[in-house]
Amino acid sequence: MMATTHAYVGLAMAAAVATVAPEYALPAAVGGALGGTFPDLDLLAFHRRTLHYPVYYWFLALPAAAVALLAPGPVTVGVALFLLAAAVHSNTDVVGGGLEMRPWEGTSEKAVYVHATGTWLRPRQWVRYDGSPEDLALAAAFAAPSLVVFDGPVRSAALVGLVVSAIYTLLRKRIVEWAPERFL
Question: How many domains are there within the chain?
Answer without folding.
Answer: 1
